[in-house]
Amino acid sequence: MTTAATGGVRATTRISATADGRGGTALPVLEGEGPLAPRRTRAVSGDEARVMLVGAMSGPLGGDHFTVAAAAGAGARLHVGSAAATIALPGQTKGGARYDVRLEVAAGGELRWLPEQLISAAGSELYVSSHIGLAPGARLVFREEQVLGRAGEEPGRLTSRLTVRLGGRPLLDQEVACGPGTPGGWDGPAVLGGHRALGQLLVVRPEYEKDVPEARLFGECAALTPLAGPAVLVTAVAGDALRLRRVLDEALAALG
Amino acid sequence: MTRAALLVLADGRFPAGGHAHSGGAEAAVRAGRITGTPELEDFCRGRLHTAGLVAAGLAAAAAAGMDPLELDAAADARTPSYALRGAARRLGRQLMRAARAAWPSGELDALARAFPKGAHQPVVLGLAARAAGLGPEDAAYCSAYESVSGPATATVRLLSLDPFDATGVLARLAPETDLVVRRAVEAARRAVDEGVDALPAASGPLSEIGAEGHAGWAVRLFAS
Fold first, then answer.
1. Which Gene3D superfamilies match (chain B) (predicted)?
2. How many inter-chain contacts (A to B, CB under 8 Å) are there?
3. Which of B206, B207, B214 to mutate to test the interface with A (most CBs of A within 10 A)?
4. What ipTM does this complex have?
5. Where are the domains of chain A?
6. What is the pLDDT of residues A198-226, one digit of tens each?
7. What is the per-residue pLDDT across A24-67, written as a single tens digit (0 to 9) for each?
8. Own/partner long-range contacts of B32-40 (Cβ < 8 Å, ≥24 apart)
């Protein structure tokens, strides 16, 4: 972790999981400090390694640049969660904060990326960029949830881009932008319609190559749709974080 | 090139099947999210900066001569909704027929052969503009404008809205349409050098969700 010339914090967290040769998953790389310290926790199932991201500082604040890079090798099963929600806050320096997520999964590897929500607090400005590279035969569960403002608060400015490639080909590329200063209509009936929580759940499974689940709705504000590849995406909006999580959990359970 | 070709391509009466689609307006009307002119304007503005920007970027890149197969894959990745991918390909196929009749071109023929069931409409539109001797900016204008003119005309039918009011919405959105076209063309220029990831990927969650619901209705006025 370093403090950049702009006054912001630059911090990188790296997690690498490999098969340990005895049916389990080893974590040869587990490094990072400050805002995003990775801690190994007890896994629920025997062959999986579970990592919790623990934030020892608040932020990201304006001017900060956080990076989390995680990789699951062939035969490795990695589950990454976070101990608490991430709150984007305004900083003392001008300019926005950046949060980069870089995920790689090898053929026969599995990554379950299930962090807590990202909350965009009033006055904050954050650009999130998530790049996921999957080899053919990789398995992925990826959830992201954004909450616009803390309770009763106006949101900050948030832009979040999710780019997923499978075998080098684009599988999913989506950007949501919301909050003051964003091009118009973001809160209108084509985009968020006044909802203050939005989320996506991406599930990639090699067996979907042959048989992918059909499109369906979960209530009026969430839909599951098969992508042009062995994957499904659940898109949801909700009044608050709790209701959003409930519908994403329901969708994940329905996929079995 | 002839400037009038732009009018032919952008004309709502160009026989490319666009009139059968509401650009998500029918689902939004049924859900009670569009009830009159102010909501229509908000809907169109959101759509312009999301689906409109993405379509304009793809069309501009195709008009600039980027590989249409790569652009079609980029369009798939930017259209998670299964229903909307189907609609985009059906519209692409219809536009292809009209464009090949209007401006015969080897590039259009090759794309039609590669996608017998239709390529994504903005990619076809970009190639059609190219075949007509038009440029990336022209193609982006067609796409961006279409993203709002479709819902506006559809809402006139769905809500019996005064057509003068709907046209007023489109006129008020004109300066923002210029802005979106500039962003799209700039992104397409970068994409020529850096690849398709440089193209816009803006999305509207409610539009994506609404499209999946709409596709399941037994009776509907519009195809999407």
1. Urease accessory protein UreF
2. 137
3. B206
4. 0.96
5. 20-194
6. 999 999 999 999 999 999 999 989 999 99
7. 999 999 999 778 899 999 877 789 999 999 987 777 999 999 99
8. B33/A189, B33/A193, B33/B206, B34/A189, B34/B155, B34/B159, B35/B159, B36/B159, B36/B161, B37/B161, B37/B162, B37/B165, B37/B166, B37/B168, B37/B169, B39/A188, B39/A189, B40/B151, B40/B152, B40/B155, B40/B161, B40/B165, B40/B166, B40/B169
